[in-house]
Write a structure and sequence with these properties.
Oligomer: single chain
CATH topology of the largest domain: Sulfite Oxidase, Chain A, domain 2
Structural class: alpha+beta
Strand order of the largest sheet: 2-1-10-5-6
Number of strands: 19
CATH superfamily of the largest domain: Oxidoreductase, molybdopterin-binding domain
CATH class of the largest domain: Alpha Beta
Largest sheet: 5 strands, mixed
Helix content: 25-40%
Distance between the termini: 54 Å
Number of helices: 11
Shape: globular
Radius of gyration: 28 Å
Length: about 500
């Protein structure tokens, strides 16, 4: 463990001047994400939700520690040293596999492995365990003369030093590459025609529901980036190519030639389970994607736009969804502030009506016009469907599962959504009783969720269950058929048990 800690710590320190591309820990974690089968990824998202990356990071460190301890038991045959050397080579290979990496970026991995081997060889040598000669001392078993204790103290010292180096390297490395200053210096464009104001009655009274507009800090985050990409505005480029009349590339400051608009859009993750919270609503500021595509001239037979993130993630979006009147955005601001880095700064896609895995590419740098029968995006290669329209769904927020409700009049509530179709009605059922209409908050647009409430007279003590279903503006009623997230989103009615006391 001490040798592995030193290897990781030295690598982290050496990665500071080279930048995030040389971070072998992030590279290895990213390779693990890429190689993990789709069902396992879905299990991780369903189990850990927005903490999936923390779980992966901790798991990688635990696996490294366990492998290091096992290999070191056979260091008399140099197995531990070989394992550390192999880890350095594999770490370097992982670094080179990432988008934007260069050959020099493998240096921290290789030097870190060499440092780890040196520490391991020192700790298993007789030099650490041999007692210092003290011919005039009467104490024969103190720290200076106990070989086992000396070796343990040396190992603990190296373990502490390696861990500290890793922490310092991580903190300083992130600070060196951070775009916080660039982001704070950016003033988002002011739309010529601001979006309609949010009416106060979108929020039902008398029940504690999520706010209609989700604060940036509370907005859900699901993506494949183990380390948040850091892109300066001056370095950002958007290339549009493929099945177009002419290839074009936009710099960030060139976006100002297009009309900026505000649009309130609810985003939903395809991994959101029935009743889940992987859904949020925000006011996005940006530029119509169709205006940018028009500069390139889209071929009539192109039916997909393959968008790419700076870290290599891809999403396939129907051309129609990016060019019709839903006003898909190249978003540069979120709720009036520059995009948070974890949500795509400096620019990302926001496409109403489609799950994020086919539409919401963050840290966007590339749009390739192509066809669905010629290209596959990241998640579609793993078994998800190609188009990903959002399904009509609803959720109960009050009461919480297993909570107690006092006798008398009580108010329940939640949210419903059917992006790009809108919600017409929400119905609630208590136990096996009849469906009753819920009271809807005001509808802002077909591209946002809608909050609902339901007042109920709790006059029967004991356990009860509340169930909800929604109807969208096409007249389609939310299905009761239960299905998992794969391949195109979970379905079923959300039910919550509660107790009247």
């Amino acid at each position: 463990m001490a040798a592995a800690a030193v290897a990781l710590g030295v690598a982290a320190l050496l990665a500071i001047p080279l930048g995030p591309h040389s971070d072998s820990r992030t590279a290895v974690g990213s390779v693990v994400i890429d190689l993990t089968p789709g069902p396992v990824k879905e299990w991780a998202i369903q189990t850990f939700a927005t903490n999936d990356k923390l779980f992966l990071s901790v798991s990688v460190l635990v696996v490294i520690a366990v492998l290091a301890m096992v290999a070191a038991q056979f260091e008399d045959r140099k197995v531990g040293s070989i394992a550390l050397g192999l880890a350095g080579v594999l770490g370097g290979a992982a670094v080179l596999s990432r988008t934007g990496a260069h050959l020099v970026d493998v240096v921290p991995s290789l030097v870190g492995a060499a440092a780890g081997i040196a520490v391991l060889r020192l700790l298993v040598s007789d030099r650490v365990g041999s007692p210092s000669p003290e011919p005039d001392s009467d104490t024969a078993t103190d720290t200076a003369t106990d070989p086992g204790r000396r070796r343990s103290l040396a190992a603990l010292g190296f373990l502490a030093a390696g861990t500290l180096a890793g922490v310092i390297g991580t903190v300083l490395g992130r600070a060196a590459s951070s775009v916080a200053g660039d982001r704070s210096a950016y003033t988002p464009p002011a739309p010529k025609v601001p979006g309609p104001p949010v009416p106060p009655d979108v929020q039902p009274a008398g029940v504690d529901l999520p706010p209609f507009i989700t604060p940036n800090t509370d907005f859900y985050r699901i993506d494949t980036a183990l380390s948040v990409p850091q892109v300066q505005r001056q370095d950002w480029r958007l290339r549009i190519h493929g099945m177009v009349d002419r290839e074009v590339t936009f710099r960030f400051d060139e976006l100002a030639q297009f009309e900026a608009i505000d649009k309130v859009v609810t985003l939903t993750c395809v991994s959101n389970p029935v009743g889940g919270n992987l859904i949020s609503n925000a006011t996005w500021t940006g530029y119509r994607v169709r205006d940018l595509l028009a500069r390139a001239g889209v071929h009539a037979d192109a039916d997909m736009v393959l968008s790419k993130s700076v870290d290599g993630f891809t999403a396939g979006t129907p051309v129609e969804a990016l060019t019709d009147n839903r006003d898909a955005l190249l978003a540069v601001a979120m709720n009036g502030d520059p995009l948070p880095t974890e949500h795509g700064y400096p620019a990302r896609l926001v496409v109403p009506g489609l799950y994020g895995y086919v539409s919401a590419t963050k840290w966007l740098v590339d749009l390739e016009l192509t066809r669905f029968d010629r290209a596959q995006a990241y998640w579609t290669k793993l078994g998800w469907s190609a188009h990903g329209p959002i399904k009509t769904e609803s959720r109960i927020d009050v009461p919480r599962a297993g909570s107690g409700v006092p006798m008398g009049t009580t108010t329940f509530g939640g949210v419903a959504w059917a992006q790009h179709r809108g919600i017409r009605a929400v119905e609630v059922r208590i136990d096996d009783g009849p469906w009753r209409p819920a009271t809807l908050g005001a509808a802002y647009s077909n591209d946002t969720w809608r909050l609902w409430s339901y007042t109920w007279q709790a006059d029967q003590p004991g356990r009860h269950t509340i169930t909800v279903r929604a109807t969208d503006n096409t007249g389609a009623v939310q299905t009761s058929d239960v299905a998992g997230a794969v391949p195109d989103g979970a379905t079923g009615w959300h039910s919550v048990p509660f107790t009247v006391a």
